[in-house]
UniProtKB/TrEMBL annotation:
This is Phosphoenolpyruvate carboxylase. It comes from Mesopusillimonas faecipullorum. Pfam families: PEPcase (PF00311). The keyword Membrane does not apply. Its EC number is 4.1.1.31. The gene is ppc. It catalyses: oxaloacetate + phosphate = phosphoenolpyruvate + hydrogencarbonate. Its cofactor is Mg(2+). The active site is at H147, K588. Homotetramer. Forms oxaloacetate, a four-carbon dicarboxylic acid source for the tricarboxylic acid cycle.
Length: 934
């Protein structure tokens, strides 16, 4: 058989999809905006390509053209290039799935897939029973968060999902063209498909790309929950089913993969999150879960039409059918349908109780009593399954009933665990007021750490509440206590998995943890006294963010567990302890290498701390690292598979949580199949990191070298960022960070405090701003200086030391992954574009001083990577990403050029609202094109 053209040229289908979408977008622009608009856009694209080639005169021509654009023309131009970036993403996603499918049909499983992980484990002598046993105690949880880098509107996402579906459909038909007898209807089918694509692209063009009102927390909650309907509720059961099949599991696996969410419970720096948003989040979550279950139960009722005249049913099933109260004479001989009618009625009543305001997809013909919890609903489903199993109906289980059972096991009625988070200083302020009013301590803030711990322990062993009835507390205190009270009601209403983690930002002492415990006790979420038999459904989770915090983390946890009663309380409360590690703030504090190294050191020390604790207690408290990763490498981003495998030996142990932030959520989970594969990656990496034999201890020479690189890297980073006079002004001028703060893309303020202090700026806009200007500083700065110093001091050991760095890259996953991430960031950086942004800095001396330092460090870092990897080429080991970036340059470069011109106009006082809108669209387009800039 003649090979299909797609097999001869692997990029051909991607290029054809991009050309098709680009042509349809161009035709849409011609039709909607006119021929002159289309020609203008094409002229700008050609000039940008020429400028990248450094053609003589192209830069002057491009700048003159951009400066002469009207506001209306500019808006049309940026919309065109932004939408192309969105469409190119869809084409690339389809190509990824196409290539993965080709490999899987050949029996080839890529790294990061569960199938490949299982093969690797079996090759290492680890059998299926050992894998299943490990999963019995595992906990893997991606946690969706809302941050001001999420630039996608739900309306746009929904349309893009439809386009993705049409591309997938088109791909299936085109593959048939290579068959000996292709479908004769193929030309007609492809023409209809193209017409549908054109319709969707017109819909995109006529839809507002951006919001004109700021997102509320409720909006963010609703947007996040859309991924459950489209992806998680459908794909997670499939993942479990495939894994069980691959393992040959005789019984269902433990539900170790569960979703988490911050949106609605994360109060740190966001005054818009209140007790009301907490209640709203939980009600909406329950509504999504229950509505989905109602739909599935209704569909089961249509499918399980078996008559008692044809087949027997179990006694338990008959009781369930009789108890339903279904009066319909048409279903009297159909016990499964009668049972499901009763289940449907009970779910409707449950929805009315847990999610008031939610609508069932179909009206129930009878009334029912609400389920007390998801386990009761699950028990009814098991009765149906067992009856089918026992009476020749086992073939009916896999299609819908088994996936529904798995969904209930994973999602319950709560859908996802909602985390709560607040800064430690807020807890301190609340307790200071409570203690002062109660006349227990007039100046809590003035106490030493030892005095605080002594007082807090005494109060945790006192059954009396702190609140004085009838006293009017300050508004902040009332608000904080209301959140704790709402959490107490929520746990009682939705079950202990509804809220399991309370995260304390800026954990700097043991008292920060005890304060949170005391406030939980005040809300009834700590039962018993600490020195007796205390227990709590909530895990108090310290968040260690800065470099200094990470260094103090092991000592803080040792002293916390040394508090009388704490270890016993945790053992009685599930024997689990999450510790959250902050990537963004530690990077902003110390730079990329120091951040990663201090995280590595802290994790190693924490694992040792909990191993010692297990010996002391005679029972293990499972330590689970919670990685506060973002989309950008400077915020802990990069491929999740490699990141998990790069964790220190013995720190995963089947337990991991990690945040999914910003536009990365859409990139990973908007497409259901890509979403499942991303979830698979987390599972595969956790399996390998936990079960594969460790390759021995990391050599001391590697560790000592990493420490030296960290020290030098941090010094270089802080010398630029915190010790260079005026650097903050450079950052705010040479990036669109101020305009990002104005964009209606999140409910959270960009800075914790007003002003332009870098210390107050959140790490998220810090990384986002550098990504927009293509300097990507948080992802590489300082490493070049560190390597240069290591290789040349002393000068006579250059070759020996270079050989050592190369050995570290080959043998140490931590170092190799860090280099790979920096390689990716540098491939996405562009000094020429970054220099164009620097022209926005009004002080010429500051501009030249800072950019000279940036250019020098960039070159040092590129040289360091070239020497260590023995390659002059970026992304030599990641051709797919290299191809992606190459295809995007002609369309992303114009957005940068236009953005700089727009920023200049806006900051010069040109008060045209269309300029501001166009700036915001360029921010959207650049973020979409780079995909992990948030």
């Amino acid at each position: 058989m003649t090979p299909h053209p797609y097999e001869l040229d692997k990029e051909l289908p991607l290029l054809e999809d991009i050309r098709l979408l680009g042509r349809l977008l161009g035709e849409t622009i011609r039709e909607q905006e006119g021929e002159s608009a289309y020609e203008l856009i094409e002229h700008i694209r050609q000039l940008a390509i020429a400028d990248r080639r450094a053609d003589q005169g192209s830069d002057d021509a491009l700048q003159a053209l951009l400066q002469g654009l009207s506001s209306h023309q500019t808006l049309t131009v940026v919309r065109a290039f932004t939408y192309f970036s969105h469409l190119a993403n869809l084409a690339e996603d389809q190509h990824f799935l196409r290539r993965r499918d080709v490999h899987e049909r050949r029996g080839e499983h890529s790294r990061g897939s569960v199938a490949n992980a299982l093969n690797t484990l079996r090759a290492a002598g680890i059998d299926n029973n050992a894998i299943a046993h490990m999963l019995e105690h595992a906990y893997v949880s991606p946690v969706l968060t809302a941050h001001p880098t999420e630039v996608q509107r739900k309306s746009i996402l929904d349309t893009e999902r439809a386009i993705a579906g049409l591309l997938a459909q088109r791909n299936q038909w085109l593959q048939q063209s290579g068959l000996p007898e292709p479908d004769a209807r193929l030309p007609e089918l492809l023409a209809d498909n193209e017409a549908a694509l054109r319709m969707r692209i017109i819909q995109l063009w006529q839809t507002q790309l951006l919001r004109y009102t700021r997102l509320s927390v409720q909006d963010e909650i609703d947007n996040a929950l859309s991924y459950y309907d489209s992806t998680f509720l459908h794909e997670i059961p499939q993942l479990y089913a495939r894994l069980e099949k691959q393992l040959g599991a005789a019984t269902p696996l433990h539900s170790f993969l569960r979703m988490g969410q911050w949106i609605g419970g994360d109060r740190d720096g966001n005054p818009n999150v209140t007790a009301e948003t907490l209640r709203y989040a939980l009600q909406r979550q329950a509504g999504v879960a229950l509505r989905h279950y109602l739909h599935e139960v209704h569909a089961l009722g249509a499918e399980l039409s078996m008559s008692q005249r044809r087949v027997q049913t179990s006694t338990a099933l008959n009781h369930l059918a009789q108890a339903s109260g279904d009066p319909s004479p048409h279903r009297q001989d159909e016990p499964y349908r009668r049972a499901l009618t009763g289940i449907y009625a009970r779910l409707c009543a449950t929805m009315l109780h847990l999610a008031p305001g939610s609508m069932a997809p179909h009206t129930s013909p009878i009334s029912g009593q609400a389920y007390p919890d998801a386990q009761a609903f699950l028990a009814d489903l098991h009765i149906i399954a067992q009856s089918l199993q026992e009476h020749r109906g086992a073939a009916l289980l896999p299609a819908r009933l088994q996936p529904l059972i798995r969904k209930v096991q994973v999602f319950g009625f709560h859908l996802t665990t909602l985390d709560m988070r607040q800064s430690s200083d807020k807890h301190e302020a609340v307790l200071a007021e409570l203690l002062k009013v109660a006349r227990l301590e007039p100046d809590y803030a003035g106490l030493s750490e030892d005095e605080r711990c002594e007082l807090l322990q005494r109060l945790l062993n006192d059954a009396r509440p702190l609140r004085v009835r009838g006293h009017r507390y300050s508004e902040p205190t009332v608000g904080e206590l209301a959140v704790f009270d709402a959490a107490g009601v929520a746990v009682a209403t939705y079950g202990p998995q509804a809220i399991r983690h309370y995260i304390i930002s800026h954990t700097e002492s043991v008292s920060d943890l005890l304060e949170a415990l005391l406030l939980l006790k005040e809300a009834g979420l700590l039962q018993g006294l600490l020195h007796e038999e205390a227990s709590t459904p909530i895990i108090v989770v310290p968040l260690f963010e800065t470099i200094e915090d990470l260094r103090q983390a092991p000592d803080i946890m040792r002293r916390y567990y040394a508090v009388p009663g704490v270890a016993r309380m945790m053992l009685q409360s599930g024997a689990e302890q999450d510790i959250m590690l902050g990537y963004s703030d530690s990077n902003k504090d110390g730079g990329i290498f120091t951040s990663n190294w201090e995280l590595y050191v802290a994790e190693t020390a924490l694992a040792r701390c909990f191993a010692d604790l297990a010996q002391q207690q005679g029972q293990e408290i499972r330590l689970r690292m919670f990685h506060g990763r973002g989309g950008a490498v400077g915020r802990g981003g990069g491929p999740s598979y490699e990141a998990i495998l790069a964790q220190p030996p013995g720190t995963v142990k089947g337990q991991i949580r990690l945040t999914e932030q910003g536009e990365v959520i859409a990139s990973k989970y908007a497409n259901p199949e890509i979403g499942r594969r991303n979830l698979e990656t987390l599972v595969a990496a956790t399996l390998e990191a936990t079960l594969l034999p460790q390759q021995g201890q990391v050599p001391d020479t590697f560790l000592h070298t990493a420490q030296r690189l960290s020290d030098t890297s941090r010094a270089a980073y802080r010398r630029l960022v915190y010790e260079t006079p005026g650097f903050a002004s450079y950052f705010f001028d040479a990036t669109p960070v101020r305009e990002i703060a104005e964009l209606n893309i999140g409910s959270r303020p960009a800075s914790r405090k007003p002003g332009q202090r870098l210390e107050d700026l959140r790490a998220i806009p810090w990384s986002f701003g550098w990504g927009q200007s293509r300097l990507t500083l948080p992802g590489w700065y300082g490493f070049g200086s560190a390597v240069h110093d290591f290789l040349h001091n002393p000068p006579n050991e250059h070759q020996t030391r270079l050989a050592q760095l190369q050995a570290m890259a080959q043998e140490w996953p931590f170092f190799r992954t860090l280099l790979s991430n920096m390689d990716m960031v540098l491939a996405k950086s562009d000094l020429d574009l970054a220099q164009r942004y620097s022209t926005l800095v009004s002080d010429p001396t500051l501009r030249h001083t800072v950019f000279a330092a940036l250019r020098q460090e960039w070159q040092l870092t590129v040289d360091a990577l070239n020497q260590i990897t023995d390659s002059q080429q970026r992304l030599a080991g990641n051709p797919s990403l290299a191809r992606s970036i190459r295809h995007r340059f002609p369309y992303i470069d114009p957005l940068h050029h236009v953005q700089v011109e727009l920023l200049r106009r806006w900051r010069d006082g040109e008060a045209d609202e269309r300029i501001q809108t166009a700036i915001h669209i360029t921010i959207n387009g650049i973020a979409a094109a780079l995909r992990n800039t948030g």
